[in-house]
Amino acid sequence: MRYILALISLLVTSNWVIAEPIKVDLELVIATDVSRSIDEDEARLQREGVAAALRSPYVLAAIRSGYHKKIAIAYIDYSSRDFNEIVVDWQIVKDKASADKFADALTNEPLTFGRRTSISDALKMAAEMIRKNNFTGTRLTIDVAGDGPNNHGRLVEDVRNEVMRQGITINGLPIINDNGGFGSRFHLPDLDKYYRGCVIGGAGAFLIVARDFPDFARAIRRKLIFEIAEAAPPKVQLLKIATSNGEPPSASGFVYQKGCDIGERMREQIWDDP
């Protein structure tokens, strides 16, 4: 008995006490594309755009409008399968000071670059981060930004459906980018439709298009306001949850006509290696 009492005393007086999950209005993972189609300036524009958005008084007002008046946010870079970097791990943002702290951490981290584009692996990692954190969010969201289709790892629609079943919403920010460089071989002029039919999903899912990388800051600021305030943007593409008979979810019946494996088929035409 005395051993049990000693153990209880140790737990109470030590740092071993398990902390209660912190309640927040939103758990958000922002995942940005750093594949070979993204150059250094474009990668920097993504980070600076997110940093500027978090510092925006409109975003801070949206945070203060929530029941808990705070959100938990993390930021990852993604590229090829198994190439995912946590740039800024989970932090609470609730006011200007905490927003500045996250933004400074984001812009001060070295840029990372990969090769191919595995949106599916980014979704898998982001969902795992949400499952394992110490927050209890009213809403769980992954925000995916990129300039091309999935072309590596598992099929994106399969992983999208798995993540949706965990109660996580996936929103999209497709960047319509054809800079004539390496990535132009994977350029999809209708990338917004690809994201709509193959990437986003979950309750109230939507996408906002960035016309190019300089437009990213505007798009992500607008997107964060809608996500944090839980307000539907105009002309939102809402997705239905997967049905019980196993049919894939659709955006009001929308199906991407070129097929969600378009990126994989484009890759096979260019490279022989897996």
What does this structure look like?
The protein has 274 residues and is α/β, with parallel strands linked by helices. The chain has one domain: von Willebrand factor, type A domain (Rossmann fold), CATH 3.40.50. Helices cover 38% and strands 18% of the residues. It is built from 9 helices and 5 strands; from the N terminus they run αβααββααβαβααα. β4, α6 and β5 form a beta-alpha-beta unit. α2 packs parallel to α8 (216-229) and α5 runs parallel beside α6 (156-164). Mean pLDDT is 84; it is low at 10-14 and 234-252.
Which properties best describe this structure?
274 residues; alpha/beta; 18% strand
Rg is: 20 Å
CATH class value: Alpha Beta
Q: Could you tell me the strand content as a percent range? A: 15-25%
CATH topology heading:
Rossmann fold
Helix content: 25-40%
The CATH architecture: 3-Layer(aba) Sandwich
Low-pLDDT residue spans: 10-14, 234-252
Provide mean pLDDT, rounded.
Answer: 84
Q: How many structurally independent domains? A: 1
Biggest sheet character: 5 strands, mixed
> Largest sheet, order of strands side by side?
3-2-1-4-5
Shape by Cα distribution: globular
Structural class, from secondary structure content? alpha/beta
CATH superfamily name? Answer: von Willebrand factor, type A domain
**How far is the N terminus from the C terminus?**
60 Å
State the helix count. 9
* Number of E strands: 5
Q: Give the helices and strands as they follow along the chain.
A: HEHHEEHHEHEHHH
